[in-house]
Task: inverse folding
């Protein structure tokens, strides 16, 4: 039995209420089914053989990705010499897949439950990070969130291992949700997401970190304002902790995000 077949079989037997209406016919369909089953799985104990098989699958997937070493990403002083950033020798912007960057820590734009996205194959960063890290990540998150009554306050953060991701750690933070207009409290909460992520990294001697656009997706924080808040929070933190980091990367999702940050810079 192939590794992925074993994983699918295990997850289906574990939850007999699930009915598969279409048997996967190729590797892509098999991975989509496996991913869906992992995404909806509650953080219950799991046996060591499953974890070994999953590590085998996900480590191969990571190895086959076009990985980017953070050391090869240009800082702003080289990329955009004319800028308004104090710490342009440390700060960088990079467009790419956050699950493919070799870096000390990546930041996960999480939700308040702190257990990852439970929507099958959802394209959010939370889902992608949990998918390619493996179920061990949700299990560790559960241990931490259980002590917090499964309520991560907006702007706060916690740290876990990264498991099968090329990063060493994942820092999870939850950004503000915008319902009608942006209030000063929400601006401060978004700033706290970046500041607390950097603080946690520094406390754990992590010298490189990649941070996505927090709250600008389904949480509806305006992208232009979010970029201003993010850059100011990081630049201000580095003003007093300049020697703590080799590189702080704003990990951007698409060309639109790049344009937004270039305007702000």
Result:
């Amino acid at each position: 039995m192939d590794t992925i077949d074993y994983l699918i079989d295990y997850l289906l037997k574990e939850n007999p209420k699930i009915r598969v209406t279409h048997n996967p016919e190729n590797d892509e369909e098999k991975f989509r089914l496996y991913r869906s089953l992992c995404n909806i799985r509650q953080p219950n104990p799991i046996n060591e053989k499953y974890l070994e098989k999953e590590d085998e699958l996900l480590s191969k997937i990571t190895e086959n990705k076009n990985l980017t070493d953070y050391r090869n990403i240009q800082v702003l002083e080289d990329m955009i010499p004319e800028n308004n950033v104090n710490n342009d020798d440390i700060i960088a912007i990079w467009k790419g897949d956050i699950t493919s960057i070799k870096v000390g820590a990546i930041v996960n734009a999480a939700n308040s439950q702190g257990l990852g996205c439970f929507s099958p194959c959802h394209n959010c960063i939370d889902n992608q990070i949990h998918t390619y890290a493996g179920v061990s990540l949700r299990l560790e998150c559960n241990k931490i969130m259980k002590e917090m009554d499964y309520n991560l306050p907006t702007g706060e953060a916690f740290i876990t291992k990264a498991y099968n991701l090329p990063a060493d750690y994942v820092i999870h933070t939850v950004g503000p949700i915008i319902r009608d207009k942006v209030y000063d409290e929400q601006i401060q909460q978004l700033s706290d997401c970046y500041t607390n992520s950097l603080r946690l990294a520094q406390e754990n001697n992590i010298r490189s970190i990649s941070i996505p656009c927090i709250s600008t997706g389904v949480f509806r924080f305006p992208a232009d304002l979010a970029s201003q808040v993010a850059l100011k929070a990081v630049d201000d933190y580095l003003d007093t902790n300049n020697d703590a980091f080799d590189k702080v990367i704003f990990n951007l999702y698409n060309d639109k995000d790049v344009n937004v940050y270039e305007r702000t810079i």
